[in-house]
């Protein structure tokens, strides 16, 4: 998995945008692998895709 290649110099965020956009995982150093894997495991597919809200939230987080 890609998480194994991340180090502390990387920041990772996870956003969802199915129906509504939301932050699932706040910006966190890439060496926090257990937290990142837990956030990834919590994701589920569902709802419609709200591309615009997802892109706007991603730009806000960047």
Question: Topology of this protein?
Answer:
Layout: E1 11-18, E2 20-29, H1 33-41, H2 51-61
Antiparallel strand pairs: 1-2
Briefly summarize what is shown.
With 62 residues, the protein is of the alpha+beta class.
Explain the overall architecture.
The chain is of the alpha+beta class and about 60 residues long. The protein has one domain (about 1-60). Helices cover about 30% and strands about 30% of the residues. The protein has helices spanning about 35-40, 50-60; strands at about 10-20, 20-30. It has a two-stranded antiparallel sheet with strand order 1-2.
Number of domains: 1
Low-confidence runs of at least 5 consecutive residues: none
Structural class: alpha+beta
The portion of residues forming beta strands comes to 25-35%
Listing every helix as H and every strand as E from the N terminus to the C terminus, the arrangement reads EEHH
Mean pLDDT: 90
Overall radius of gyration: 12 Å
Strand order of the largest sheet: 1-2
What assembly state would you assign to the polypeptide chains in this entry?
A: single chain
- Calculate the terminal CA-CA distance, rounded to whole Å: 23 Å
Tertiary shape: globular
Helix content: 25-40%
The total count of strands amounts to: 2
Major sheet attributes: 2 strands, antiparallel
Count of alpha/pi helices = 2
